[in-house]
Amino acid sequence: MTVSGNCHKVKSILTLLNLPYEWIELDTRKGETKTEDFLRINPNGKIPVLQISDETYISESNAILYYLARDTKFFSNDLLEQTRILEWMFFEQYSHEPFIAVNRWLLKFVPGTANAGQIANNHSKGTKALEVMEANLQNKDFFVGNRLTIADIALYAYSHVAEDGGFSFENFPFVRKWMHNVKNYPKMISIESKDTL
């Protein structure tokens, strides 16, 4: 689904690596990932899914990022850098995306479906994630090794549209600078960012 930040990650790495691919759109809101055919591909019923052979599929956006980038400049040969990249990718899935992306979904795509307490709780935890990012981006252009890696791609997918979920970047100058660096990285600018969930 074009509006999915997790799909945005996959489209980003495919574009950056000049890999040929066929993109198949599915609408999760219409139940297209809950069909019997799709559940054979991914029993979790979620997108994105990368098909790498007739019978082999990879789900989970960050696992797909790793699979595609592991032997490229967007990962690392250094064990400590590899670990730092994975730290940020786990942070994105546990401390960032559940709050920033969910508030964006609730406020932009299904307004009125959540109570104010849920939105406020998500906002507090999402802001904490941005504070952690801000502290780690001081005097750095990117998160690991001062170059674009899949850690940046993972975090950028929902950060760059966080304002749709009620988040402000007024107090996060280093995060703003980092988002500018990612957006303006060669080829990233060609990816339709505002369609992202």
From TrEMBL:
A single MF term (Gene Ontology): transferase activity
InterPro entries attached to this UniProt entry: Glutathione-S-Trfase_C-like (IPR010987), Glutathione-S-Trfase_C_sf (IPR036282), Glutathione_S-Trfase (IPR040079), Glutathione_S-Trfase_N (IPR004045), GST_C (IPR004046), Thioredoxin-like_sf (IPR036249)
Gene3D superfamilies cross-referenced by the UniProt entry: 1.20.1050.10, Glutaredoxin
Residue ranges of domain GST C-terminal in the record: 78-197
Keywords, in A-Z order: Transferase
Alphabetical list of CDD domains matching this protein: GST_N_4
Stated name of the protein: Glutathione S-transferase
